[in-house]
Each structure stands twice: as structure tokens, then as C-alpha cells.
Amino acid sequence: MSDAEEQEYEDSNTSNSTSRSFLPTPARREPVVPPLIPPKIPEGERVDFDDIHRKRMEKDLLELQTLIDVHFEQRKKEEEELIALKERIERRRAERAEQQRFRTEKERERQAKLAEEKMRKEEEEAKKRAEDDAKKKKVLSNMGAHFGGYLVKAEQKRGKRQTGREMKVRILSERKKPLNIDHMGEDQLR
């Protein structure tokens, strides 16, 4: 129905106030059709067919108007429901986007915590390893100083008189020259 037809329809509805009394109230959903009353035919000699035709046209027009009104009310309700549905969909979409953003933020924080915890553990392990290595070196150096073997003991005994065997070992070790093999090739070393 075009806008011009709707305007004519509204104008005809306002001018015909008696036909409006049969229209349904907004609370009802089903169309209310006026009771069908057969046109009265006068018992006289004259039958006015124009009057009968006019009454039938008015009745048809009234039925059509009620159907149109019901249709437009139903359409208006459906459009309102559609608008409400679209709003609900948009609201839900916004809520989902907010939830997704919140989840990604939480996941990012969790990943950062895990990375920080991992780095902290690695630093602690490295520190512990360094402390263990330092302890081992200290123990080894202490062992080397206290339990250094024959030569260390010999150096520490300088104030005492050497035995014959110690003198022999010392003299032979001083007499011994280290071999110089830097200038030799591999085949000469074999």
C-alpha cells in the first residue's frame, strides 16, 4: 500500500466514524468481523437494488478495513519484535566481545606470569649452580693446598734435611730437559 493510499485510507476512516465502532480494540489479536446480517428486502412492490448494493459494499469495505488494521497491527508488532531482536543480538555481540577481550587479557597476564616464573627459576638455578661451583673450587683448592701430593710436601719440607732418595729425585728432575717437539711434523713424532 503506497503512502497516498494510506492517507486516503486514514481520511476515509476519520470521516466514517460509524464504521469505526466495529473495529477491534488494540488488546485483541484476532480480527473482529461484524455479524452478517442479510439485507432486508422490503415487502413492497419496489426493491431498491442500489441500496442493497451500497450496503453490501459498505459491509465489504468494513471487513476489508478490519483486516487491513489487523494486518498493520500485526506487522507493527513483528517489526518491534525484530528491532528488539536486533538490539538483543547487538547487546549479546558486545558482551561476547567484552568477554573475549577479558579472556585474552587474562591469558596474556597468565603467560607473562609463567614467563616471569620461568626466568626466576632459571636465575635461581644459575645462582645455585654458581654457588655449588664456587664451593667445589674452594674445596678443591683447599684440598690442593693441604693434600697436594709429593712435590707440594717436598716444597713444604725445605727447612728439614733431605734424605738420600729425595736428593736423588731432585737432582734428576733438575737435570731433565723437556723435549722440544714444536718444530717436528706428525710423521717424525711417530
From TrEMBL:
<feature type="region of interest" description="Disordered">
    <location>
        <begin position="94"/>
        <end position="190"/>
    </location>
</feature>
<dbReference type="InterPro" id="IPR027707">
    <property type="entry name" value="TNNT"/>
</dbReference>
<keyword id="KW-0597">Phosphoprotein</keyword>
<dbReference type="GO" id="GO:0005523">
    <property type="term" value="F:tropomyosin binding"/>
</dbReference>
<feature type="compositionally biased region" description="Basic and acidic residues">
    <location>
        <begin position="163"/>
        <end position="190"/>
    </location>
</feature>
<keyword id="KW-0514">Muscle protein</keyword>
<dbReference type="InterPro" id="IPR001978">
    <property type="entry name" value="Troponin"/>
</dbReference>
<feature type="compositionally biased region" description="Pro residues">
    <location>
        <begin position="32"/>
        <end position="41"/>
    </location>
</feature>
<dbReference type="Pfam" id="PF00992">
    <property type="entry name" value="Troponin"/>
</dbReference>
<dbReference type="GO" id="GO:0006937">
    <property type="term" value="P:regulation of muscle contraction"/>
</dbReference>
<dbReference type="GO" id="GO:0045214">
    <property type="term" value="P:sarcomere organization"/>
</dbReference>
<dbReference type="GO" id="GO:0031014">
    <property type="term" value="F:troponin T binding"/>
</dbReference>
<feature type="compositionally biased region" description="Acidic residues">
    <location>
        <begin position="1"/>
        <end position="11"/>
    </location>
</feature>
<comment type="subunit">
    <text>Interacts with TPM3.</text>
</comment>
<comment type="function">
    <text>Troponin T is the tropomyosin-binding subunit of troponin, the thin filament regulatory complex which confers calcium-sensitivity to striated muscle actomyosin ATPase activity.</text>
</comment>
<comment type="similarity">
    <text>Belongs to the troponin T family.</text>
</comment>
<feature type="region of interest" description="Disordered">
    <location>
        <begin position="1"/>
        <end position="45"/>
    </location>
</feature>
<feature type="compositionally biased region" description="Basic and acidic residues">
    <location>
        <begin position="94"/>
        <end position="135"/>
    </location>
</feature>
<dbReference type="InterPro" id="IPR038077">
    <property type="entry name" value="Troponin_sf"/>
</dbReference>
<dbReference type="GO" id="GO:0005861">
    <property type="term" value="C:troponin complex"/>
</dbReference>
<dbReference type="GO" id="GO:0031444">
    <property type="term" value="P:slow-twitch skeletal muscle fiber contraction"/>
</dbReference>
<protein>
    <recommendedName>
        <fullName>Troponin T, slow skeletal muscle</fullName>
    </recommendedName>
</protein>
<feature type="compositionally biased region" description="Polar residues">
    <location>
        <begin position="12"/>
        <end position="22"/>
    </location>
</feature>
